[in-house]
Write a structure and sequence with these properties.
single chain, 300 residues, mainly alpha, MetI-like fold, 2 domains, 15 helices, flat, ABC_transporter_permease, Sugar ABC transporter permease, MetI-like
Length: 300
């Protein structure tokens, strides 16, 4: 019996050998470039690197300077506001649109394409388009005033107190379509017998969604949450295209802080420290997701 087990194991190792050989370049790329680059960045974040990287360790000095910088604190605050609101509105709007699409409406394919189309655009294009739309000279404010409401004011990109909400509008316009498609795929996976049973029992549709359908779509919500969160942490293009971080530093975000310090201020140590903090944020998002997705399955 033991000999049979030993004979089976080599065969299992040789199974799909071609696929395993073909995956070697990808594995090496992931290990050397991504993992190696990550470790390299973290190590040099404790150095005093300026224009070029150098191993002159200064301990936690770069991190102390980072968290003492008003610009970094503003970037973190903007990311928190943008991130929380983006998560909430993307999930709510995306799910509501998916629920409407799931009613077998006419021209569903057309509407689905219209809602998903903005996601095909780059953030630069989206940012420029919404910069024009929100421009007080010829955007929404100008159009409404031309209709007779002379006192109407809507210039979020030029108001430091609400500029982050102007960026949020553009982000929701672009990303909500993808969330809608993910949610729609989850809704189409719900057994039709559940809907029939709820109708027979006289359960209102909103209660069916809230207490039956949404709990069944937990994997879809978790995956969507991770996709949205990863986009939030690395938001950069949209800010640069709409405001370039202005007015002043009112719309600055961590990714722009990293870019400016690494390529403009020529302070690699500070840029590496900010990058490491962003990496830590991503880890805080990914690790719980991995635990929920794979830890639960393993226990099951």
């Amino acid at each position: 019996m033991t000999g049979q087990v030993r004979a089976v194991r080599p065969n299992q190792l040789l199974r799909n050998l071609n696929a395993k050989i073909a995956s070697i370049p990808m594995i090496l790329t992931a290990v050397v470039i991504f993992l190696g680059g990550t470790i390299w960045t973290v190590v040099y974040s404790f150095s005093n690197s300026k224009l070029l990287p150098r191993l002159s360790f200064v301990g936690l000095d770069q991190y102390e300077r980072l968290w003492a910088a008003p610009r970094w604190l503003m970037a973190i605050q903007n990311l928190a506001v943008y991130g929380i609101l983006s998560l909430i509105f993307s999930l709510v709007i995306g799910f509501l649109l998916a629920a409407l699409m799931d009613q077998k409406i006419r021209f569903e394919n057309t509407f689905r394409t219209i809602f998903l189309y903005p996601f095909a655009l780059s953030f630069i294009v989206t940012g420029l388009v919404w910069q024009w739309i929100l421009n007080p000279e010829f955007g929404i404010q100008s159009v409404v005033r031309s209709l007779g409401w002379e006192s109407f004011t809507f210039d979020p990109l030029y108001n430091a107190d609400i500029v982050i909400y102007g960026i949020l509008i553009a982000a929701l316009w672009q990303g909500t379509g993808l969330v809608m498609c993910l949610m729609l795929a989850g809704l189409r996976g719900i057994d039709e017998d559940i809907w029939k049973a709820s109708r027979i029992d006289g359960i209102p549709m909103w209660r069916t969604y809230l207490f039956i359908v949404i709990p069944m779509m937990r994997p879809v919500f978790v995956t969507t949450l991770v996709i949205i969160a990863s986009g939030i942490v690395r938001v950069y293009d949209l800010v640069v295209a709409q405001t370039s971080g202005g007015p002043g530093i009112a719309s600055d975000v961590p990714a722009k802080y990293v870019y400016d310090y690494m390529f403009q201020a020529q302070n690699l140590g500070q840029g590496f420290a900010a990058s490491t903090m962003m990496l830590l944020t991503v880890a805080i998002i990914v690790v719980p997701w991995a635990y929920l997705e794979f830890g639960g399955k393993k226990r099951g």
